[in-house]
């Protein structure tokens, strides 16, 4: 009787582990491929909003806003740097980066490798391989300059700001990354 219970337990464990998909589950750091990074949409699924640029083409000081989500228009390149940090840039503008600025708003700034406001820590609940569709889920984007602040999408119904707020783990601080 004890042997059959042990066999049943082992078979249950094997069934569970073989059912886990190849993507990494649990706290993980996403991989956006080798330089130059991967073109993504950054989506807050809970609010149905996606990061966007207040004006195109962007220039220094262009505000990052949240607008209704669409996976068909990637607007940013995310790059995982050798030091473990991440940079986020508007597509086609390698001399600009997304940074926390005055009032903890997110704006584009001139690239400066010594400015920690331009770097991010990203941790996800599920990490996959960069591809079309959503591949990283439940991600928190934390400021390197101030590790107690996380990116948060405003709950305004139409176009709203994306800013830094105290890290709470709330739905408006959880983002998915997807490729167009």
UniProtKB/TrEMBL annotation:
<keyword id="KW-0732">Signal</keyword>
<protein>
    <recommendedName>
        <fullName>Carbohydrate-binding module family 13 protein</fullName>
    </recommendedName>
</protein>
<dbReference type="InterPro" id="IPR035992">
    <property type="entry name" value="Ricin_B-like_lectins"/>
</dbReference>
<feature type="signal peptide">
    <location>
        <begin position="1"/>
        <end position="19"/>
    </location>
</feature>
